[in-house]
What does this fold into?
Amino acid sequence: MNTEVHAHDHHDDHDDHGPAKGVGRWLFSTNHKDIGTMYLIFSLTMFFIGGAMAMVIRSELAIPGLQFVHPEFFNQMTTMHALIMVFGAVMPAFVGLANWMIPMMIGAPDMALPRMNNWSFWILPVAFGILLSTLLMPGGSPAGGWTMYPPLVLQTGDSFPFLIFSVHLMGISSIMGAINIIVTVINMRAPEMSLLKMPMFVWTWLITAYLLIAVMPVLAGAVTMLLTDQFFGTSFFLAAGGGDPVMFQHIFWFFGHPEVYIMILPAFGVVSEIIPTFSRKKLFGHDSMVYAASCIAFLSFIVWAHHMFTVGMPLTGQLFFMFATMLIAVPTGVKIFNWVATMWRGAMTFETPMLFSLAFVFLFTIGGFSGLMLAVAPADVQYHDTYFVVAHFHYVLVPGSVFAIMAGAYYWLPKWTGYMYNETLGKVHFWASTIFVNLTFFPMHFLGLAGMPRRIPDYSTQFADFNTVASIGAIGFGLSQLLFVWVLLTSKQGEKATDRVWEGSHGLEWTVPSPAPYHTFETPPKYRIADEAFE
Amino acid sequence: MIRNTLLSFLGLSLAGSAKADWALNMPKGITDLSLETYNLHMMVFWWCVAIGIAVFGVMIFSLFKHRKSSGAEPATFSHSTTAEVIWTAIPVVILILMAVPTAETMVKMEDSRNPDLSIMVTAYQWKWHYKYQDTGVEFYSSLARTSMAARRKESGIDPFSVDNYLLEVDKPVVVPKGAKVRLLFTSNDVIHSWWVVDLAIKKDAIPGIVNEAWFNANATGTYRGQCAELCGKDHGYMPIVVEVVEPEAFAAWVTSHDAEQ
It folds into this structure.
């Protein structure tokens, strides 16, 4: 993903100014491509750090009995794994893709607020530096789960204020990123690109950005109340002082449920770009896809308490949240049907981005099915806080969000580097990932149904077999991801990429040279001409 | 069958376990409501299977039939209002079919009126306290010594050699068969969750709040569960054991308990 050399070539060709030299180029960058690259590298780094923690978890759980870590460290690992993967790996990866691709997709020269863009990125290494430093503190890192439920989270040791501060920083970074995307998309589209003509990736990100602005301040409020409960004598969530521990859960999940769509809507967007390209056919029902994504975003605000069916809610409350949750299946179904209809009677080829996207459609749907099962409140009482839930959210997040990110990376990599990656390696990476991801997470459904709770470091012997299978799968999945790094490192050894890269690609980003010059679309393109050129 | 055999072989060779099983599904449990819950679970599961066969079937057919290498020419259609109305309407109908029986079960679950017996369950880090409301029987229930010894890191004790490893307590809860038992939950410190899969009860024990749930067991026997809400370092070590006995045996148990106290 190093664009430096090629950007210099274009520096000579064109009369624009290229990147600054040395470390200053990255520290002070206001260029959306450089910042996008930094986001993506940061996200990949966090993916491996969070992944290493997952390896600790799965190694400990491979057989019954404690072999490697103590229960308190195990809890630190599950908590940190979740925080790092959610806020450090998945979200920044999508912001990285947005930074790189949104200006090029809408014909804008850069993001609307380039200095804020720089800031929103550079806050992240600070936030995660603080969070990771808690591993070295007395009492270790936070161990109360990424959901930070009080009163347990208030038992955290010295790392507690650092946890709160790093979550604040992550929130500030996300809000700034979201503002930037909204302003860019609303104001800087090419002339003639009306809102409904925008590519799906831009659309899903626009909706995601609104979700971020709506819910990140809610999370900030919730953790601030934890902070004042701990240090300033308030009792928002402390029963002894007249507070309510369940209120935290309501506030947290009012953030937390839209958050899951923040992690999946951009994935929908990526897949909606890739499937038409490799089916050589237009996206089926573009407008209804937009309406479906908007519906999902709206519904995400009124379903939060389905995470709380066991806290003791009134019957009417349970019924409302169950019905609302079931409704989400409708727009989600529309999206899946539209992808299948896009493939239908197309002329498909199966390059790595398409393979990851197809696996996304299959495996995300499986995660959707278990989601529908979880919506059924009496059954949820049995599933809640078991490995069934762990299986569910890993299905929508790993072969869901992470596969979509991988698909996007392979799809746009030739545009970023100017070279085709090694297709054989890419396919090996895909098949290894797909086999191992299922080996890891499918048996977890059975474990949960049989009665294994989540977040336990050791378990009774009847759960031994499937846990061993899951651990083998997890180690395999972890190792497979090293292939991805190899693909990236060798990406410059391939053939030179054409401007259009893929036979069926469409849209403005494919009208600029590969690799994309340091500055693109300094004069707005004629959107309609670019669009029709490919039809 | 073949798959199960293969998996068992894999498991035996890896874990060397004779006791482990390959349970695939939720148990039906021992109450009317646990059976209803199981049936709801299976109903949604089969709907998902049916939808999955339809969607994946079309998709797999397309993946084989509409590929460039077999000379497919891409069609040009990109929307169809009829199709979209159909695949919006059908899921709505399916959801209504699912929601109605589910709501009926939920109404029953919430009806804890007129219990025969009430037990106050108080959660502690990391054990349970049970207090039988009318008889005055009360006791703590924590992880059994055999598991306590084996759970330590480098304990040298093979978990497979311990009966009901991590699922055995020193004093189980004893309840009569065929009686409506109401459980009241609260906590002394952090949030815990009382879960016994065969009773289809999972309810959070929350400081400052009293939650309730009820069951009426149809079978005698010993039923095991665990804390289901992360409650600190020993969250994995606070099991629950419920013994359902005949009403006469229950009366005798209460009397012997009174004598002890």
Observations:
- The longest strand of chain B covers residues 117-124.
- The longest helix of chain B spans residues 32-65.
- Residues 1-20 of chain B have pLDDT under 50 and may be disordered.
